[in-house]
Amino acid sequence: MEIIKTLNRMSAWAKAQEKSAKQISLVPTMGSFHEGHLRLMRRAAELADLVVVSLFVNPIQFGPAEDLTSYPRNMERDAALAREEGVAVLFAPDQEAMYPDPPLTRVVVSGLSAGLCGLTRPGHFDGVCTVVAKLFNIVRPAAAVFGEKDYQQLAVIRRMAMDLNWNIDIVAHPIVRDDDGLALSSRNRYLSPDERQSAPALFKAIKVARKMVRGGIIDADRLLAEVETIINMHDNIEIEYLSIIDCENLQVKTRIDKRSLLAMAVRIGGTRLIDNAMLFEETEGA
Ligand code: AMP
Description:
Rossmann fold; 9 strands; binds adenosine monophosphate; alpha/beta
């Protein structure tokens, strides 16, 4: 596995693959790999000849009060894990390389990025789209894999790729969870033992909501009230939002149907966690 740190070298490598008719799949990440990231890499390997994983903690997607400086970083461990997965290139530019000058251009996907996480993280998705647009241009992948854990991000990137005519297959990967249902996240390591014990409440609430839907309850407010009650049983969890939305246009729904997605963001202590699930779809353990 090559570790590439400059945009020029990455771009030259990608062009060389194109010349020899090799296709690339890309997994954009901020590093600190867990099983969720590794599963995305495995999925990417099924989609093209060569997998490129980008590792870049993107400053322009963090708000001023967010965890940019404390975000977990462990380049050596990440490189070893990516190598084990058979990744061809770990593209790990530093901030200077990625943004030699503060960018005057941003990619803005309006509408889809306004609600949910966009409400409390203004500018977040513009930062995400801008860096993903740069990665697409540098790496020139045929496919790119994103996790459904960041559901709104996936929807926004799909739309960006469509609006800007990138011929890139945007592939979704289901949420990878711990045994107790907590969605894996680099931020889970911030949780104290007490907080870690409370965190599976999110998945528990999802399971209850799905059970209610199976039992014929399709009123969104009733489901949300139940979800809220379950989460609020834990004093150390503060709800940021709970929402039932359409899985494509992300508009709020009042009645549940096959396209309804339950999405949530909470704070546990200082840690912000997100989760989501389709309300009709059955997955393992739910
Ligand atoms: P991050 O490094 O947290 O920015 O995540 C990089 C990619 O991994 C994004 O597409 C995330 O949605 C995805 N991802 C992170 N955690 C999970 C998870 N538990 N299950 C599935 N995908 C994930």
